[in-house]
């Protein structure tokens, strides 16, 4: 795999530190493929993450949201010793993290039929939303009064 040096970009940009940190982190970590997951866009500002967690119960899974990071962790409880001839359903502990954009919040999590679904919503504060600026006439600008 090829690595990139972001040092020249850090010297010439302001306020993009988080983006470069995410790019740098993505190069260093080896992506694990367990548990498998989907990320869906349900609407303009609505998203859903679905994780396939066969063999887990809702008590063995924890979902934590903290400062733009969503963490899903699973750990199997004590099971009776079994003699498997073939074990194709993994039950190993896992921790999967998702980096969330600013203003993205977790709204709901549900676990049904082996699928954990986490609903996310991007809620921009009113001050950050686009707003229409009325354009006044030139006479209005000069006199400070509206022309009749």
Automatic annotation (TrEMBL):
CDD domains: ACD_IbpA-B_like. Keywords: Stress response. It comes from the Bacteria. Residues 28-138 form the SHSP domain. Belongs to the small heat shock protein (HSP20) family. This is Molecular chaperone IbpA. It comes from Bradyrhizobium sacchari.
């Amino acid at each position: 795999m090829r690595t990139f040096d972001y040092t020249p970009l850090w010297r010439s940009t302001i306020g993009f530190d988080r983006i470069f940190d995410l790019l740098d982190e993505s190069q260093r970590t080896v992506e694990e493929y367990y548990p498998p997951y989907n990320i869906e866009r349900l609407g303009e500002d609505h998203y859903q993450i679905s994780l396939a967690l066969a063999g887990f119960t809702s008590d063995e899974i924890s979902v934590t949201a903290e400062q733009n990071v969503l963490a899903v962790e699973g750990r199997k409880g004590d099971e009776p010793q079994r003699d498997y001839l073939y074990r194709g359903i993994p039950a190993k502990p896992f921790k999967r993290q998702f980096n969330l954009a600013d203003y993205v919040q977790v709204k709901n999590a549900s676990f049904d039929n082996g699928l954990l679904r986490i609903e996310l919503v991007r809620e921009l504060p009113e001050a950050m939303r686009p707003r229409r600026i009325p354009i006044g006439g030139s006479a209005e600008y000069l006199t400070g009064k509206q022309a009749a």
